[in-house]
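Minutes, project check-in
Item: structure for the 167-residue chain
Input as provided by the requester:
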Amino acid sequence: MNTNEIEPLLLRLLSSIILFRALEMEDLADLLRSASKANFAAGGMVFEEGFSGHSMYVVVQGRFEVFKYVANGTEAHIAYVDPGEHFGEMALVTDNPRMASVRAVEDSTVLRFTKSALFGQPKVAVFLLKNIAALLAEHLTDLNQEVLLLNTSRVKSKQTNSSAPSV
C-alpha cells in the first residue's frame, strides 16, 4: 500500500478512538503526521512500570498486555489492548512514573504520539484533555461500582456469618 491508501485507513482508526473524537479531519491528519510507527515482536516491552513516560500509543495491529509486577516477581494481568484501542495516555497528564508495564503479546504495530506533539496544537490539546477527563471519569465511576459491589458482598458475608447459630 502506498501512503495515500494508508493514511485514510489510519485517519479512520484515529477518528474512532474516544480520545480523538470530535477532532476535525484536518487536525487528525496533522496528528497522524506527528506520530511515529513502532513495531514490536511478540514479548517485546513497550514500557515498564516505574519509568517516566512522555508518549501514548494507539494499536494498529496485534495485541498488547498491560500488567503489574507484584510480590516475588510475579505478574498480575490487568488488561489486553487490541487494534483501535490505546494505552499510556496517563503519561500525557501527569509526570508520575508509569503505573504498569506493557508488552506485545504477538507481533504488533502501534502509532506513538508524544506529549509535545499532542499538546503542540492548542485546539487539539483542549479536545484531548477534555476526552481524557471524560475517560478517567468513566473509569472512576466503574471503579466506584466495583468497590460498592465488593463492600456489599462483604457486608452480606458478615451478616451471614454472624447470624449463623452457634453450636
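Outcome recorded: The chain has a mean pLDDT of 86.
No further action items on this chain.
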